[in-house]
Structure formats: C-alpha cells, structure tokens
Give the backbone structure.
Amino acid sequence: MRNSREAKADSYFSCSDSERAAFEAGIKLGTIYHQFVGVPLSIENVGTLEKAIEAGSKVQPFVEEVKVRIDRSMLKKKRGEYDYISLTGDMLDVTLTVKYKTATVQASMKYVKDMNYPLMFFKKLTVER
Amino acid sequence: MRNSREAKADSYFSCSDSERAAFEAGIKLGTIYHQFVGVPLSIENVGTLEKAIEAGSKVQPFVEEVKVRIDRSMLKKKRGEYDYISLTGDMLDVTLTVKYKTATVQASMKYVKDMNYPLMFFKKLTVER
Amino acid sequence: MRNSREAKADSYFSCSDSERAAFEAGIKLGTIYHQFVGVPLSIENVGTLEKAIEAGSKVQPFVEEVKVRIDRSMLKKKRGEYDYISLTGDMLDVTLTVKYKTATVQASMKYVKDMNYPLMFFKKLTVER
Amino acid sequence: MRNSREAKADSYFSCSDSERAAFEAGIKLGTIYHQFVGVPLSIENVGTLEKAIEAGSKVQPFVEEVKVRIDRSMLKKKRGEYDYISLTGDMLDVTLTVKYKTATVQASMKYVKDMNYPLMFFKKLTVER
C-alpha cells in the first residue's frame, strides 16, 4: 500500500508513468551534479565520495539502484598540501534506475567527448504493459 | 537548423518528446535546489539571488522561461552581524518551462505543507499534434 | 553597541582580533567557492552571478566589501542549447575585506598558474594600534 | 622539505603562523557547510556522509584531523519514498585541526541555541615557541 505522502505527491501530477519516471530521474542526476561538484578530491577520498553520492541518491524518491564512478586519471596520491583537485562534472560517470509504477528509467550522466559536455541521458526506458 | 551538439545529444535518447522534456525539466529543478540551497540570505540580497537563479537556469538546455520566488517571511533587515539565514528548499517557489520539439512541460517546485516537503511537480504537460 | 548575538559569538573565541578576522575571511572565501562552483554559466548570466555572489557574501558577518570577477575568456554567446559551461574555481577572482574590531583583512582568491591552483590568500592584514 | 607549491603559496602571505592557520581553518569550515548542505539525508546514509565529509576535508591543505557528527534526532528509517530530509547547517557538529608551521588551530562548527545559528569558532589555538 502506498503511503499518504506518496498519494499526495501523485495528486500534483497528471501524466503517464514514464513521463513521471523521466522527471524523477532528471531530478536525481541534477542533484548529484550540483550537490557534489566542487568537493576536494584525491586518491585518498575518491572511493568514500563515490559511496556517499550513491547512498545520498538512494534516499531520494523512486531510486532503485545507483552506480557512481569518478574518473581517477587526474588524481594522484597526496604528497604535498596542494596535491588535490575539485570534483568536476566531466569526471562523473553515473547510472541510476528510477521506477515509478509501470515505468522504469535507467538514466546516466557521462562526459561525451564529441560534445565536450557531461551529458545526462537515458540508457533504457521501459513500461510494463 | 539544430546544431551538431544537439543532434549528438539526441542520439543518446530513444523516447517520446514528452519523456525527454520531463527529464530535462527534472534536471533543472534538481540543479536549482542543490546548487543554491545554503546561500547566505537576508532582505538585502534576496532579490539579486532570485535573478541569478533564474538567469542560471535559462542558460541550460531547452529552458524557455523561469520564475523564482524566495519566501521572505523569515527574512529581516540586517542590523547585527548574525541577522541572516541560509536558503533552504522550503523557501523556494519555482516555475519553469521546458520545450523539447513538440512537448512543453511547465514544472514547479514549492513547499507542500501536507507533506512537509519541497515538492517538484508538473503544472502542465502538453504535446503538439 | 554590539548586540547580544555578537557578544555571544565572541565568547566562543579566545584569540587576537587579527586571528579572528583571518578566520572569518577564510570562511567567506570557502563559502563562495563551494556554494557557487557548478552554476551553469554563459555570457548571458555571468554579470548577474557576480552580483549575487557579492551580495550573498556581504550578508555574512564582518564583511565590509566584496568584489567578484569571473573570467569571461571561456564564455561565449549562447547560440545552441549546449553552449554553456559550469563555473569552476579557476575562473574566480575575488577580493573581500573583513573587519573585526581592530583588525582588517583583505583576502583574495585567484587562479595561480605556477601552482595550477585557485589560491586563497591575504592581500593585506592590518591592525589598528 | 616543503615542496615548491607550498613555498609558492607561502609567498602570497605576510602574516603570523597563527593568522595563517586561522585563515586555513575558516576555509575548511566554510567548505564543509556550503558544499554539503542540501544533501538528501536519512538514517540509511548519514554515516556514509559523515565519512565522506571527513575524508574530503582531510584532502585540503594543513588539515590534520576532522570529526564530523550529523544530528540524528530528526532522521528516521526510510519507509515511504518521501521519508528523508536535506542536510542543514544546524545539524552539523564538526571539529577539525589545522596545523601551519608553529601554529595549531582546533576549530569547530556547531549549532548555538542562544544564537539560533550554526557558529564556527575556535576550540583552541596554540603556538609553539
């Protein structure tokens, strides 16, 4: 049984399950990008940060799975005080699954070289019939 | 004529125009919330911040219009050094329009008292036929 | 006369005026960097964003003046949907003045090429005697 | 031996070790607040987030130790989709140690009820002689 806050939320939408799932997936990717870009980053904390981003995303509505991978090619072991960088959107490789009733969206964010842009897109969108 | 980065982006989607528009709208609301929550806020800077959030949102893909209104009821004129607060999601009232090809989504974020939650939702979703 | 919240805050410090001013200046530069890095940016909104960062900083305790300049060399006029970038720390050139009782600190953040790092530092620190 | 980026950074300061340490401590607390306020939060991810904030802070210059504790009193086990909140500054209890040459600052952030404000302050400031 769906609880009352979920029913209340539903009353603010008049659309298909897949449109709702697409919207919810967009919110989660926008959240990840704009919440975490800027975090101080080195080899020492990259794994911990990936886990925190995943765990934070799972807390949001309708998220079933999340996988976050941060590009390590620009990271090095910290020797001097200034040997670290800030997380940028281009370093993020994210795939998450949002399920709303009959619709499931697998959405991703990754740097697309041809566009020089960290694109958010759909890997897969399915509707149960 | 759509330029090549837009065509490249389109190649990462296999969905209806309205699903794409819904996704893009979700990204923009997630961006606003998670980018700007935390900004120091008083009566002195609230108008400037509303304008900056709107202007930043308009820069993103497929955004046609944005209206941001921050609740002023908790703000006061700054007399002492500590007379200010941080922007929270509950104070945000946002409506934006995303248009992708035949689909137009008017999406909003506002605090819903019954849910004690700053809900993101659709005001209107239309598809040209 | 200083108000009671300021006196209360003072009771949490046991240090010189210049150490307090230095601490307060550090907070403000950390705030600017980590609050605003990630904002969507093009020629269209760069001026509005500079103003909002300045206005937000002035709201914080003991800030007298703030000047924010964002490097425009990577920005272009938006023609296509994806013609924008995200603000990075390297683009920020900030100078702010914090005054606490007898101490005044002029602190800055700017990209230092030799370090490949957006350094936060003191331009000037003076104590009235 | 201090490396060249550290020496380069030092050349941008003309102040006492304790003023520098105070400045560096302020930057770190400002970073934590403005980077992480807004993260989606429930009992499920609070521990992971504490660890990620600590690990990110340790990556920054001159940080020796960091302890982050997020107030759990407002968090509950997630049963419904909307059973979570966003991290606010008032929930943060942070203590970190910054050491710059002869100076050591132990700085904290915690919600001060009398001020209704998440205050950043010094727990201890010592200079070796």
